[in-house]
Amino acid sequence: MKNRKTIGRIILEIVMFLASLLFLYPLFLAINNSFKSFGEVMRDVIALPEKLMLENYSYVWKFIDYPKLFTNNLVITVLGLAGIVFVSSIAAYKLARTKSRWSILIYMLCIMPMLIPFQSIMLSVVQLANQLNLSESTVGLGLLYWGFGAPLAVFIYHGFVKGIPKEIDESATIDGASGFRLYFSVIFPLLKSVTTTIVIIDVMWIWNDFLLPLLLVNGSPDTKTLTLAAYTFVGQYTSDWQYAMTAMVMAVLPSIVVFMFLQKYIVKGVVAGAVKG
Amino acid sequence: MFKFLGRKGNDKLEFGLFTIPVIICIAVAFYIPFFMTIRYSLMEWNGISSSPKFVGLENYKQIFMGDANFAQASWFTIKYTVLYIVLINVIAILLALLLNMKLKTTTWLRAAFFIPYILSLVIVGFIWKFIFMQGFESLGKSTGWGIFELSWLGDPKLAFISILLVSIWQSVGFYLVIYIAGLQSVPDDLKEAAVVDGAGPIRRFFNITLPLLAPSITISVFMALTNSIKVFDVILSLTAGGPGGTTYSVAYDIYRDTFQNNLFGYGTAKAIVLFVVVLVITIIQLTLFKRREVEA
Fold it and tell me: What is d(CA B274, CA A123) in angstroms, rounded to the nearest whole number?
């Protein structure tokens, strides 16, 4: 009886392991074919490359100006994130600590936009961004994310601040700290766990976001993001699959590398974000 | 901060300093565009001419009276949303049950199923396009299975299934980790008690595990609904609306009208319709959710 159970478990282990490999097979095929020549891709997609065509990588690297794209993504993501965390956390703190009709009203105004689908307002966002000179610039794009990310961040921070005892503020006030000094030296450090959650879900969102950059970059090469460049690249090379797959692998590689190192935190952050949101 | 203002005035000033930045950001991102959208939706405008024409509710009338594209896109989105919600939750629960059996490879399995979720949907769409177009040909040759010789992106019915399949493949890991977290909060002694009482695994699942998973199911259904009703990126790169315009979703239809056909007024009217639908569905869901919470 006991033996049968262990055998069953071993079979289950093997089946699940094979299933996970099958699940990731499409990614493997993408990587596999990024190292092949055009003829090889056309002949057989499954076979391993006869010799590694590293030229594919150097070609795409230069053609799409990978370092530039990577820097763009980094600037947009870091700027967007810093703003979301700063602007939302101070507001959520003040709103949670103030008991007044104004405070409730502003809180509602902050979180209600979670109900507005981006596609419903995208045209007007583009028009407004053009008028405010925020389009066709990485900084402008980063700044726009402050507003798009704020509703969820305010909501999560607000819920968390309510759990921090008010006595902490009061004792800090007696010690002579007030305003922003009180906030940054006493309160903000206490928000660390919830800030981590917000950082994780927002990095995944901003780094991979497609529609907003597509609409706002307008073909200007200085502002392109990784995903956007991969998209336009494939549009130009519809049948050159080896280059297309190289571009895809280069676009997703940073995410996969980061995930391998921070797997535990990312999964935890995503779960926490979903449960609180 | 400023002594001359007195304590009350100082509090007010501080309240403003802390909250005004977020109000400005949200106004720029949501509220100003939202009211602009409502205004545009009452106009006929191609985006270029300097004088848009006010047409009242004419755009809305046209959407509901005679727009075959919108009707088709709505039907596509409804079918997609319902199937996506059901399939992703069933698959994720089943996987979560298997992964919760404390296998030696659990950490690897969870990571493996989660990886596609960290990738951009547009890129996932392209990778799968390559698999469907080139990969399946090679797989068909080497296995001889007919399933690989079907036209997965060329036939309207199969293209729909392909989009659904790719979306599920990309996001199943997300729902999986939510359900694993939910399962871990099911107390072991409850399950042990049921074993002692002689309940088989299937009865244990339906009578104990599933009811205790209710909060996770609520979250997952809610997330699946809000994500699938706005489906766009994956279609853009996988089928681009084809074959023959059969795989346009509502969001993609709005994109097509506003940015490809330059029907700014008409496209934004559709966008407002989408907003109202999402709003109504969310309100219904939140009320149902509240009621259930009271019962529990």
Answer: 14
User: Residues of A221-244 as b/e, b for ≥16 C-beta within 10 angstroms?
Assistant: eebbbbbbbbbbbbeebeebbbbb
| DSSP class per residue in B146-185 | GGGGS-TTTSHHHHHHHHHHHHHHHHHHHHHHHHHHHHHT
Structural element, H or E, at residue A83: helix A66-97
Q: Which of A224-233, B40-49, B177-186 has the lowest mean pLDDT?
A: B40-49
Of B234, B255, B239, nearest to B119 (Cα)?
B234
Residue of B nearest to A245 (CA): B127
CB contact under 8 A, B127 and A211: no
Rounded Cα distance, B211 and A133, in Å: 52
Domain coordinates in residue numbering, chain B: 3-40, 72-295
Please tell me what DSSP assigns to residue B209.
Answer: I
pTM of the model: 0.89
Can you tell me the ipTM of this complex?
0.89
Instruction: Classify residue B266 as exposed, middle or buried by CB count within 10 Å of its CB (0-12, 13-18, 19+).
Output: buried
CB-based contacts of B112, cutoff 8 Å, min separation 6: A20, A21, A23, A24
**Contact call for residues A190 and B66 (beta carbons, < 8 A):** no
Contact (CB, 8 A) for A206 and A53: no
pLDDT in tens, chain A (277 residues): 567 778 888 898 999 999 999 999 999 999 998 898 888 888 888 888 888 888 889 988 888 889 999 999 999 999 999 999 999 999 999 999 998 999 999 999 999 998 899 999 999 999 999 999 888 889 999 999 999 999 999 999 999 999 999 888 888 888 877 788 889 988 999 999 999 999 998 999 999 999 999 998 867 777 889 888 888 888 777 678 888 889 899 988 998 999 988 888 888 888 888 877 6
Name the residue with tokens 């007696």.
Answer: A174
Residues in B closer than 8 angstroms to A41, CB to CB, are 134
Handedness of CA A167, A172, A177, A181 (dihedral sign): negative
Question: Residue B295 — pLDDT band, cuts 50, 70, 90?
Answer: very low
Contact A172, A186 (CB under 8 A): yes
For B72-295, CATH gives 1.10.3720.10
- Type and span of the H or E element at B44: strand B43-44
Instruction: Name the 3-class secondary structure at B43.
Output: strand
Domain-wise residue ranges, chain A: 2-53, 65-236
Amino acid at B195: V
Mutate to test the interface with A, among B12, B118, B232 (most CBs of A within 10 A): B118
Confirm or reject contact between A26 and chain B (CB < 8 A).
yes
pLDDT, residue B291, reads 67
Q: Which fold has domain A65-236?
A: MetI-like fold (1.10.3720)
A245·B127 Cβ contact <8 A = yes
Other CB atoms within 10 Å distance of the CB of residue A190: 14
Instruction: List beta partners, residue B54.
Output: B43
